[in-house]
Design goal:
The protein is mainly alpha-helical and 350 residues long. The chain is built from 15 helices and 6 strands. The strands form 2 sheets. A 3-stranded mixed sheet has the order 2-1-3. The radius of gyration is 29 Å and the shape is elongated.
Length: 350
Amino acid sequence: MSRCATTLDDHRIEFKVSSHALSFASPVWKKFIFPQFPRVAESSERCDAPAQKKARAASPDPDHILDFTEDRPDALLILLQITHLQFAVIPKTLPYKTLHGVAVLCDQYDCRKLVRPWLADWLREEWNESNMPGQEGWLFISWCFGRYYIFKALAMTCVLQASLGNDGECMIDGAYQFPHPSCGRRPGPEYRGDAYPFETEAILLPLGIVETILETRQQTIELTLDAVYEVIQNIKCPFEDNDVKHNPSFNFRCEAARLGSIVKRLQAQELWPRPGPGKLTISIHDLLKLLRYHIEMASRSLLPEGHENCYPQNSLWLAATHAISNLSFPVPDSHTIDITFAGLEVGIID
């Protein structure tokens, strides 16, 4: 038997486990319990016969305590119950934080195969759960258990929802619509919420994912702004062409009012002149809502009486959404490899 320690409600708890069960379940645990170079406690032991030394090396150190105090206790309990063949008590569904804790421990102790029989049940609601606000830890869950489609879709959703905080930290908008960010519907009370930090100490994320999301966010913002200002440039072009300006079919008053109203609303939202790279702190989700409701629809109210229909509806918003409609999250090669091997290991392939 091996002695272990964990923490529950700030209280240290010590317990015993089967040394051999743990060594079969995890190569990491095996190294903890049966170290390659066992400590020699007494100088007299150096004189023992080789057979005695071998027997001692194959037995766990009775004074050594396996420290699990940094691990989530409910997740650890599930892994230990599986390890000790207590299958009847293993739950068929896990709360989000418990499942995330199990994923962290499976990765930390290299024991994904241990939970393979229960994964299909635990991941049954993965699409719904991964799209819930505040559950970005599904990035780690999907990465650990080989769920490539979930990982990629959630990462792209985070790209659309990511904004920059006062200190430049990555935030996630509280305004969220399942299953995708609501980029087209009118903002209402159900779409409003405070932004919250993407990274927290309690939730582990895959290595480098935050940086990749922020880079993709910036690239997507530039694509969005390119499309918006291309529409504006197309409106401006006739004013710079003498032949077009004198064409009877060109309605100077309507086009001037249209251009002026757009620019005025863009200025009100600090989007005119075009902000430089990295200057825009709002999310892409909020940028699209601004374009549709606070710029285009508000601009129509500024048009001269009788010319309301001269303004094509949603031209900026449609151009912006079309520009990014086919974008997908560029999963780094290292994560693609990790997810692929994890899927093979647990036997669940997208």
